[in-house]
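Worked example 2:
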Amino acid sequence: MGLTKKVGLLSTTSVGGVAGAAALAHHLTSEDKVKTFSDKLRKDHFTLISKEEDWNSILSEYKQNKIAVGKLFKSGGNMTLEELKSSCDRIAKQDLDDSKNYSEFRRLCTVPKTIKSHLDSYGIVALGLEVGDTKDKDSWGKLKDAYVKLGKNIILNLRENLNKQDGKEGWQIFQEACKGLSEIKSTDTEFDFSFDDFEAWCTTQAVDKLKNS
């Protein structure tokens, strides 16, 4: 998901101005290059862990087997805090190889974010998610209708719950499903897929797309 960079105007009426413009252009081009795991994190708006409390929290989840690991880190919950730190530091500097390894690295080495907080970092606006929040009722209803019309079970159990209703209005069931998605953490293997689903079905931008379709 790319972000537009706003660059101030530079004077090119002198050699210095031209050189300055060229240097800035080179800097922005270099900044956009993704070579290492660390580069990819910055591009994706994640932050490497630095605080001891965050390290301990991640290690605790790892030892309880709540964070899936692959080939980058020890399985079975046998890694020590120092091993986790040194592994993250070493891998951060390595060339990015494939998305599976990157996802594993991100789960264990970055400050955890929820889908909602990650969405905010991109300037994407979620509809009202709290129970009893009716200000976006019409928008939720439109998204629900579009979802039903699509005929696919994109969000887990949502179609089934919409069919049951259980005394709730359809828009409320849809809102609850999006609330659940919003709380998924970046330590979860389903984070990326769920983020895409949330953006597509739970945001003001999603409503705008319906208006323009």
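Confidence is low (pLDDT under 50) at residues 1-30. DSSP finds eleven helices and no strands in the chain.
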